[in-house]
Write a structure and sequence with these properties.
This protein is of the alpha+beta class and 468 residues long. 32% of the residues lie in helices and 16% in strands.
Length: 468
């Protein structure tokens, strides 16, 4: 029996090695995705409408569907995508405004469009734009440092570089993609101080790398912490690492306080209060820890729809582009990088998609994914490798229970706000061809029904093998 997995591999090769070249692979294995998929039952919904809602549990079903079964399902298949997708787009669950775009990933040919050029609120699918911009500006191997420097008065300053994944927790994991550890930073700092004969020190903190308001325009929210250049564990006040959670209102001060406590654990006394202090340009670096690569951060952002990392990537893009690391500066930098990729026309207001002022067309999202599949742009490959896999990982883990044709073949970024549902990604069709797609719906009244309608659209593309 020829399995769908074989067809999928052939399709990816035909797309110019779209998912097999650069990006966070180790020894030919996507270690991060394997580990995420193995954590059965532990995932939470990584994004919800603003009011929040529980994730649906995934239904158990066969992992692989034989090619013969797919062919049987396609008996009497339509001659074109218009005939295949047109009736599904009429589903009332998609609301009063919706659009669609489908492209051949290898050739860049548009295979189908329906109101594809009209800009809609993308919700979290705007993270695709943020990811592509960050990879373009910084490169996939760039890392963000958190440092400790000696100031001129004999004290030290903890300097935030903008890594929201910096962790104060034990057991941060191993390997090159593990999060930076605040405990390790404190330990290295203590060693450097003791080597200088110091066992007591004044501690300050500097989060000045970012500018402008820290609170997202939607206001305090369980979906995102204040955006700060210094924070630990995304400002979460529980032990979660994804999805909604209660957040710190002052993640900068909290991170600095935890660092001071860890420094004491290493035998270094802290004099006075831990307070804000600007590190001088000539301050001497004592210790540093580095974030995972931008490629790994992009993967985590897209797989889990992580708002905090998305906003950090947008600000890092601003810094790399010579712009202010604020919401406004980041939006301008992301837009500029999209223009440089030939993807003009987006209105970007934030990096996460929580802002309804974001306006992007289905056509732009589908073409962005074509760019990421281009073998001449290997730096963009993590945009593809980070996409959730239907029925298995991230925000698609609990979906596609009823759409066997798409399970394991659809890889897509989800988008959900109240009244807005979107889906954009890649799929291997029944002919073994890799295509990119974007489906957008506004004015939806039932989020679950809208998601099922979007999943049917992507599954139809997978099962169709239709020519335009």
């Amino acid at each position: 029996m020829r399995f769908v997995a074989v067809s999928a591999l052939a399709g990816l090769v035909a797309a110019g090695g779209a998912v097999g070249a650069a990006g966070p692979w180790e020894g030919g294995r996507r270690v991060a995705e394997r580990d995420r998929a193995a954590a059965a039952g532990a995932d939470r919904a990584a994004e919800r409408p603003e009011a929040g809602r529980a994730a649906r549990a995934p239904r158990r079903a066969p992992v692989l569907v034989g090619a013969g079964e797919r062919g049987a399902a396609r008996a009497g298949a339509p001659d074109g995508l218009a005939e295949a997708l047109g009736p599904l787009l009429k589903d009332a669950a998609l609301g009063d405004r919706h659009s669609a775009a489908v492209y051949d990933a290898a050739t860049g040919e548009r295979l189908y469009g329906s109101d594809e050029g009209t800009a809609y609120t993308p919700a979290s699918t705007v993270k695709l734009a943020t990811a592509a911009a960050a990879l373009s500006a910084l490169g996939p191997d760039h890392r963000v440092d958190t440092t400790v420097v000696a100031d001129g008065d004999g004290g030290i300053v903890l300097v935030g570089g903008g890594d929201p994944t910096l962790t104060a927790r034990d057991g941060a994991g191993a390997g090159p993609q593990r999060p930076a550890s605040l405990r390790e930073l404190a330990r290295s700092t203590a060693r450097a101080l003791k080597a200088r004969g110091k066992d007591r020190v004044a501690v300050g903190y500097d989060a000045s790398r970012y500018a402008g308001p820290a609170v997202h325009p939607i206001g305090p929210n369980e979906n995102i912490a204040p955006v700060s250049a210094l924070m630990v564990d995304e400002g979460r006040l529980d032990d979660s690492d994804r999805g909604p959670a209660e957040r710190s209102t002052d993640p900068v001060a909290d991170a600095a306080g935890k660092f001071a406590g860890l420094l004491r654990d290493e035998g270094v006394g802290v004099e006075g209060d831990v307070a804000a202090r600007r590190a001088g340009d000539r301050a001497e670096r004592l210790a540093a820890v580095s974030s995972p690569t931008v490629a790994a951060l992009v993967e985590r952002t897209l797989t889990n729809s992580d708002n905090d990392i998305a906003e950090a990537l947008a600000r890092q893009t601003a810094l790399a582009s010579g712009q202010e690391a604020s919401f406004e500066g980041a939006a301008g930098a992301v837009t500029g990088r999209l223009d440089g990729l030939g993807l003009s026309g987006a209105k970007v207001a934030d990096g996460s998609g929580l802002d309804r002022a974001d306006q992007v067309s289905a056509d732009l999202l589908a073409r962005l994914l074509v760019r990421a599949a281009d073998p001449r742009r290997p730096e963009l490959r993590p945009v593809l490798t980070g996409l959730p896999v239907a029925g298995f990982t991230g925000t698609l883990r609990g979906r596609y229970g009823d759409e066997a044709a798409g399970r394991g073949l659809v890889r897509a970024k989800t988008g959900t706000l109240t009244g807005v549902n979107t889906l954009a990604g890649t799929v291997v069709d029944a002919e073994g061809r890799v295509v990119t797609f974007a489906f957008m719906a506004s004015g939806t009244g039932d989020a679950d029904a809208a998601q099922r309608a979007l999943d049917r659209l992507a599954a139809k593309v997978a099962d169709c093998g239709c020519r335009s």
